[in-house]
Amino acid sequence: MSIIILGIESSCDDTAAAVLRDGTILSNVVASQEVHKLYGGVVPEVASRAHQENIVPVVDMALKKAGIDKGDLNGIAFTKGPGLIGSLLVGSSFAKAMALGLGVPLMGVHHMQAHILAHFAEAPMPKFPFLCLTVSGGHTQLVLVKDYLVMELLGETLDDAAGEAFDKTGKMLGLDYPAGPIIDQLAQQGQPVFDFPEPQVKGLDFSFSGLKTAILYFLRDQSRADPGFIQNNLADICASVQERITSILLKKLKAAALQTGIREIAIAGGVSANSGLRKGLENMGQAEGWNTYIPKFEYCTDNAAMIAVTGYYKYLKGDFAGQDVVPTARMDW
Ligand code: KG4
Ligand code: ZN
Predict the structure, then answer these.
(1) Rounded CA separation 297/312 (Å)
(2) With contact defined as beta carbons under 8 Å apart, do 251 and 241 qualify?
(3) Same domain, 202 and 93
(4) What tens digit of pLDDT does each residue of 21-66 get?
(5) How far is the CA of 299 from the centre of ligand 2 (A)?
(6) How far is the CA of 6 from the centre of ligand 1 (A)?
């Protein structure tokens, strides 16, 4: 008999639903909330309200695209945390009500574990144990993945996340939110001619707040001397910032690989969509003799396929949540 799982993701500003049958993605629907561009960042209350409007049509569309009747579902997975609490409440309440109505089990999923398990949405899939650099708007983590649901955090950011470094730089440059993909595009037309400092952080942890401040002061000083500096050097500034963020990330990834002796190396999360990071990982992988794994774009940024995949492995283990489960903004492994 087939096992069919519905996944629901609502941790930040994307309302997403996906259907998975026996580990194969049948549909993967995302409604992104453009409204936050007006404010230069995600406004939590606005996000919750948009999730409320989107969730019924998004789930409906995921079921229709998959050609699955809701009565055929074997379980429902939802993002339990970490994320914005109001946003999480919409997805979790919906999932709980639907599971109760259908009489099927409920799986509460850790969003960052799900980003890693996005690698199991489609082949090629990494072999255990592997290392995963998970880089998103809120997190930067180096994780030792021993099995689908057995993961150990080796290092993480002490302050800002890598995605935040992209987004905050974008704000300084007058770019729309989220600025990561825009900086990526602009960087392709420029050269990394400006040298931003590399933080000296011990072990496998990261730091991006010093870089953010260095960029701020650099832009302030240059703009004082030449008010058109940003406009005239935008592509080169973007290329330089992207180069530095990428070098910080890859340096620690290499250190983790050397420390653990692991050569199965993956990246995940929204920033893994970055072309500079993808290229840098490929080059480093070839030089170091690694097998590298980079998700397809649709599985990098927030999506529900990764929630459904994680839910599937929880289902197989019988790791179910009760109706009393509550989402949490902060969540340990
Ligand atoms: O994983 P994600 O979709 O949401 C969170 O869980 O945070 O990641 C969103 C982050 C944002 O900071 C966005 O700017 C960044 O991923 N991002 C990128 C690119 N695409 C998305 N950063 C750099 N280059 C990209 N191509
Ligand atoms: Zn995410």
Answers:
(1) 21
(2) no
(3) no
(4) 999 999 999 999 888 888 888 999 999 999 999 999 999 999 999 9
(5) 10
(6) 24
Using the mean position of ligand 2's atoms as its centre, give its distance from the Cα of residue 231 in Å.
31
How would you write 224-258 as a 3-class SS string? HHCCCHHHHHHHHHHHHHHHHHHHHHHHHHHHHHH
Q: What is the pLDDT of residues 96-144, one digit of tens each?
A: 999 999 999 999 999 999 999 999 999 999 999 999 999 999 999 999 9
pTM: 0.96
55 and 163 fall within a common domain: no
- Domain residues for the domain of 206 are 124-295
Indicate whether 157 and 227 sit together in one domain: yes
281 part of a folded domain: yes
Ligand 1 pocket, Cβ-based, cut-off 6 angstroms = 12, 136-138, 163, 166-167, 178-181, 184, 269-271, 273-274, 301-302
CATH number, domain with residue 15:
3.30.420.40
Q: Whose CA is nearest to atom 1 of ligand 1?
A: 270
pLDDT higher than threshold 90 for residue 257: yes
CB atoms within 10 A of CB 126: 19
pLDDT score recorded for residue 332: 87
Q: Are residues 180 and 77 in the same domain?
A: no
